[in-house]
What we know:
CATH architecture of the largest domain in chain A: 3-Layer(aba) Sandwich
CATH topology of the largest domain in chain A: Rossmann fold
Strand content of chain A: 5-15%
Oligomer: homodimer
Structural class of chain A: alpha/beta
Amino acid sequence: MKNILIVGCGLLGSSILRRIHKKKITNKIFIYEKSISNISKIKKLKLPGIIVKKLEEGVRKSDLIILCTPMSEYKNIILKMNEHLSKKIIITDIGSSKIETSKIIKKFLRKDIVWIQGHPISGSEVSGPENGKHDIFENKWCVLIKDKDTKKKHLTMLSNFWNKMGSKITIMTAEKHDKIFSITSHLPHLIAYNLVKSAQDFEKIQNYDLIKYSAGGLRDFSRIAASNEIMWRDIFFNNKQNISKAIDLFIKNLNSFKKDINSKNDKSILYKLIQTKKVRSKIIKLKQDVSKPDFGRS
Amino acid sequence: MKNILIVGCGLLGSSILRRIHKKKITNKIFIYEKSISNISKIKKLKLPGIIVKKLEEGVRKSDLIILCTPMSEYKNIILKMNEHLSKKIIITDIGSSKIETSKIIKKFLRKDIVWIQGHPISGSEVSGPENGKHDIFENKWCVLIKDKDTKKKHLTMLSNFWNKMGSKITIMTAEKHDKIFSITSHLPHLIAYNLVKSAQDFEKIQNYDLIKYSAGGLRDFSRIAASNEIMWRDIFFNNKQNISKAIDLFIKNLNSFKKDINSKNDKSILYKLIQTKKVRSKIIKLKQDVSKPDFGRS
């Protein structure tokens, strides 16, 4: 791999940038970033890479393009890139939902260009290039999307790239991806936003100053509910069918809990609480979270 | 204060025990613990204090009794203690909901005995005396409950005690307490249990191995959903009216989010996501959580 263009240099774009530089993965790294504020941060932080003023400038000089922008930007970026792309170029992205973006890609990208979709399961509630870290992908999953047209050599090439980023690779279809992450990521985020929204509503109705008592549980949700709103709007809209089904399942189960509580159904509720407890130890065993109680916070 | 009896020596009981010993708050500490497994842990850990075999033994020798058992035990403990209580004794507890337990206390406790209800906003997903810590209450709120019969001298005495535990004191009615914590603690726990339950159901329906992809959000909920099931059953049952209302508000808001998502209502969803984001910085400013991104986990 010779040259890489990173389109969108926020939290994850700048993390990829830092990692490429640290591991000396490529000759040149180009950065295309729309936000003036982000550009001045990148300069101030003295991040590696060459900032290009025009997208096509980076596109023409690169072998690999990585889109790290909100998914709602993909269409415009594709339309801008199309005429400047050479056939040898490979495009990838890090978007958190896949079916809708694959439709955009199929519809608007030049037919002779390869785009392998990717999704590193890494992130944070904070955004921007100042929060990126070279080790953010370390030992985290990176999903690569395979459809009927995907060639093995392209998957291998991108697997190698993400291995160098520190990731473990898993390959699946866009359909499977969007189903799995509707439950393990998209619904949890929506639920966190919704819980904080409900607390805010309650605070207004009751006129209580309740946020100061949030250490008993609410604070955990507030972290996720502080995530970037543009990114999450795009995810919710792009994966709306799966998320809608997940919401229905969630409400069905919540009503069942409500019934247990209102009827003081001891046996039913204890069974549920004991069953759910098992997931935590499974998650820790799979190294998907730290093992320390309370995330090692206190 | 001369002697203190701790009834129930799990996570919080043993934390109080450690703190009393560390700060040399009292002459003697008695421990009454029903669980044989906990008693052997206390002995193995060489925790301070005298383990009494019979509850009345500790009751007769103490000036302050602190109940640290699940709330469903209160009635039995009161009935066992009643005839052994001297009039000078003060009883308190650390239960997480207050109206129902105040009814139990009023109904079963001898009329000449003072019980001031307390609730330190401290805890963890892990239980047992092996997980207690002397500084678990440090800079955390401790709610003391005041009703029309509460005497100032008793509140002062207990405020002093909890200050020595490291807590900040706030005083409110049982009604206000149960409303506030239905939103900041009880609903978040229920929602976490419910989300993990929904993920388990989904995993079964789809036959996907999805827990391994939980780093994108689910893992945070799994921590809370690993909390002690007896304690949480008691809280849900004891505060069922407020929790039921909180569930209704939550479902109403979730359906509104669903509508935004299905109709791709950009303006409405962005407004919500931006508003909820503000709570996080408020929580950090109020020192209710660590300020590091991702709880400083990675």
